[in-house]
Amino acid sequence: DDEIEMALTACTTAASQALGREAAGLAEGAPADFVLVPGATPAEAVVNRPRERIVIKAGRIVARDGMVTG
Questions:
Q1: What number of other Cβ atoms are within 10 A of residue 3's Cβ?
Q2: Which three-class secondary structure string do you get for the chain?
Q3: Is residue 61 classed exposed, middle or buried when 0-12, 13-18 and 19+ CB atoms within 10 A define those classes?
Q4: pTM, to two decimals
Q5: pLDDT tens-place string over residues 17-70
Q6: 52 exposed, middle or buried (CB, 10 Å; 0-12, 13-18, 19+)?
Q7: pLDDT for res 54
Q8: Distance CA 10, CA 52 (A)
Q9: Phi, psi angles (nearest 5°) of residue 35
């Protein structure tokens, strides 16, 4: 679990910092680009690779379970 969480940090928060950008986070008024997947822990979400997911771009749902929403 620790190694998976470290890998997720490396490709999210740490990647932003390496590019000289402010670390991303959820805050009112901030851009909202992320993917929601079910899982009790980050490790569970990565290992199980659930098909259920919601893609958020600029605060709007743009895809759900592999289907683009309109």
A1: 8
A2: CHHHHHHHHHCCHHHHHHCCCCCCCCCCCCCCCEEECCCCCHHHHHHHCCCCCEEEECCEEEEECCEECC
A3: exposed
A4: 0.66
A5: 888 887 666 777 777 788 899 989 888 888 888 889 999 998 899 999 989 997
A6: exposed
A7: 94
A8: 24
A9: -120, 130
